Amino acid sequence: MFRRPSITFRTTAFVAVVCLALVALDGLNSWHSRRVQLQQMSVATSNLARAMAQQADDTIKQADTALVGMVERMEYDGTGPAAIERLRKVLAIRVAELPQLDGLHIYDKDGNWVANSRQTPPQNLNNANREYFLYHREHEERGPHIGVPVKSRVNGKLLIPVSRRINRADGSFGGVALATIDISFFTKFYDSLDIGQAGAVALVLESGTMMTRRPYSTDMVGRNMLDTGLYRSYVTQGPVGTAEILSAQDGITRLNSFRRLTNYPLFVAAALSKDEILAAWWRETLWHTGGVILLALIVGFVGWRLVKQMELRSKTEAELRRARDALETLNKTLNTLAMEDGLTGLANRRQFDVTLDNEFSRAMRDASTLALILIDVDCFKQFNDIYGHTAGDECLQTIGRTISGLASRRPGDLAARYGGEELAVLLPNTDVAGAAVLAERIRSAVRDLAIVHAGAPDGFVTLSAGVDALSPSVTHGPPKELIQSADKALYAAKMGGRNRVCTAEIRPTTA
User: Fold this and answer.
1) Is 206 exposed, middle or buried (0-12, 13-18, 19+ CB in 10 A)?
2) What sign for the dihedral angle of Cα 291, 296, 297, 299?
3) H/E run at residue 10
4) pTM across the whole model
5) If we measure between CA atoms, which residue out of 135, 122, 131, 121 comes closest to residue 159?
6) Contacts by 484-490 with C-beta closer than 8 Å and gap 24+?
7) What's the alpha-carbon Rg for the chain, to the nearest Å?
């Protein structure tokens, strides 16, 4: 028997729930604040990556534009001394105008310098073994090529080569136009960005080569990034994305946003340290969590004192509570006895009649249908005569459990013992077809129980069922019309050979 928890227990539970709720709500609020902080920083890193991508794209675009003019001059003006001298002056002007450029150069098909932007041209240097030169010699594409970083043979600077192919008049390879961008141009821009003490930004070739990075190290320039979490995330998410990555360079977990350049095969990554992002959140969380815990302790202490006072009072009320509980238990038992069939555990006839009237009235108000299945155990008298009433009771109990399992799946459905071996299933909001399907399912399930019955035609206990449904708002008849109609259908099922379901129109659904 269920005993209602004591007032002391409930008060203790209430105080405990209040204290836990305070801590839980504070935890949820802190977790939400953490998510908001990370989301805001995700937006910040995304915006930073956008700005970096635009800066890199513009920087390379300016150099590439200069290359387009150089290629056009070489292919149409030729390589005569006068043309080369004019071109060298133009290259020097371009380099002076574009601070990112270390130099502009033109090489012939063998990799020898033809012209460059320097006042004193280098002597006896050949760049035929450079990656960008080999690329253009082997590829006929005329678009720009971003090569891997190189170290200048003239001044030792680390440079990003941007190059285009020069063709001869017959379309064959004629040389390379090269613009070298000083990596320090990017590092100065990256140093101006506010990314905290442990933040990082990078410019990476789509082929997986690191161009430059902050924190800057010459060892990082040209490093292969194919096996890093950053590169795998970029390949997985596409040209734009955000990911939390443990850095392969320094072991710091960062919130990374990356973005591909619009016009060139590079991508930028902007990353903020997760620890730095959450540092202020941690400080705030520790302060207000400490306050909440202190408040919870105060509430708990006051609640404990209150419980002690209530325990004193509850002792004088114990007998009254026991008497009340006993009365409630008795009332529940009487109510069960009054509304439940003692043998089958189904609703009894009284509950069936009450429910029928209620559901009939509801169906009239809602203009819905009400269906009824009347069920009779075939040859049940012979079963009792052959096996005895004890076996008959066990048979009805088994059938009752089977019907209850199939016919009481909706809140409004009711399975009842109508009388003797007759059972009934009341189905609100159900038409004849739906009720017939359920009746057939019940008939089949009882037959599948394979309860031996020597007095039945096929040797096993079977059911016959009659089904009807009506809409009270249309027929305007009393509830008993539904019972009479279903009973007629049941009679038709009996007369039709038993072990079958008939609807009110005397149409058997199975035999």
Assistant:
1) middle
2) positive
3) helix 7-77
4) 0.55
5) 131
6) 486/372, 486/373, 486/374, 487/374, 489/374, 489/465, 490/374, 490/375, 490/376, 490/464, 490/465, 490/466
7) 45
pLDDT of residue 507: 41
- Helices 183-191 and 7-77 cross at an angle (nearest 10°) of 150
Is 166:191 a contact under the CB 8 Å cutoff? Answer: no
120: left (phi over 0), alpha (psi -120 to 50) or beta: beta
Q: What DSSP string describes 148-173?
A: PPEE-TTT--EEEEEEEEEE-TTSSE
pLDDT at 6: 67
Secondary structure (DSSP) of 349-417: HHHHHHHHHHHHHHHHHHT--EEEEEEEETTHHHHHHHH-HHHHHHHHHHHHHHHHHHH--STT-EEEE
Omega cis (within 30) before 215:
yes
Q: What is the pLDDT of residue 7?
A: 66
The one-letter amino acid code at 337 reads L
Q: How far apart, in whole angstroms, are the C-alpha atoms of residue 16 and residue 311?
A: 17
- 165-199 burial code (b ≥16 CB/10 A, e <16): bbbeeeeebbbbbbbbbbbbbbbebbeeeebeebb
- Contact at 8 Å (CB) between 508 and 490? no
Determine contact, residues 106/116, Cβ cutoff 8 Å: yes
- Give the span between the Cα atoms of 287 and 372, in whole angstroms: 66
**What DSSP string runs through 303-356?**
HHHHHHHHHHHHHHTHHHHHHHHHHHHHHHHHHHHHHB-TTTSSB-HHHHHHHH
Q: At what angle do helices 274-316 and 7-77 cross, to 10 degrees?
A: 170
pLDDT-flagged residues of the chain (< 70): 1-8, 119-124, 314, 317-318, 323, 332-338, 505-511
Which pLDDT value is given to residue 476?
74
Amino acid letter, residue 246: L
Say what the pLDDT of residue 80 is.
75
DSSP 76-96: HH-S-HHHHHHHHHHHHHHHH
Q: Amino acid identity of 431?
A: D
Task: Give the model confidence (pLDDT) of 13-65 as tens digits.
Answer: 777 888 788 888 888 888 888 888 888 888 888 899 999 999 999 999 999 99
3-state secondary structure 262-318: CCCCEEEEEEEEHHHHHHHHHHHHHHHHHHHHHHHHHHHHHHHHHHHHHHHHHHHCH
